[in-house]
Amino acid sequence: MTSATLCSPQATPELDIVVSELARVSDLLLAFAGEARTLAAGTDWQARAAQAFHDRASRWAGDVSNLSYLAETARMSVASARDSARTRYEWACS
């Protein structure tokens, strides 16, 4: 993480928080997807309800995994915007 300077824009500390929180969200979503896959794998597939649960849990795990990728993409975009803002202001101050 780039350290803030006196010339850094006021919003960069908030962007640091957003980057950190989006990383946490992404990690949690991946953990939830893993738990759903574990539950689906542990289901007795012979009962009709168990098969339905397995299918739904597997689909849900995939959906949640996709959300984690979106969160990670958003985190990278915010980090890039933060770094660009800092660079612009630092160049303006030098």
* Main sheet attributes: strand count, strand direction, barrel closure: none
Radius of gyration: 20 Å
Written as H for each helix and E for each strand, in order along the chain, the element string is HH
Can you count the beta strands?
0
Q: Helical residue percent?
A: over 70%
Q: What is the assembly state of the chains in this entry?
A: single chain
For the termini, the CA-CA separation is 21 Å
Average pLDDT works out at: 84
Can you describe what's shown?
There is one protein chain. The chain is rod-shaped and about 70 Å long. The chain is mainly α and 94 residues long. The chain contains two helices and no strands.
Explain briefly what this protein structure is.
Helices cover 81% and strands 0% of the residues. By secondary structure, the protein is an all-alpha fold.
Which keywords apply here?
single chain, 81% helix, 94 residues, mainly alpha
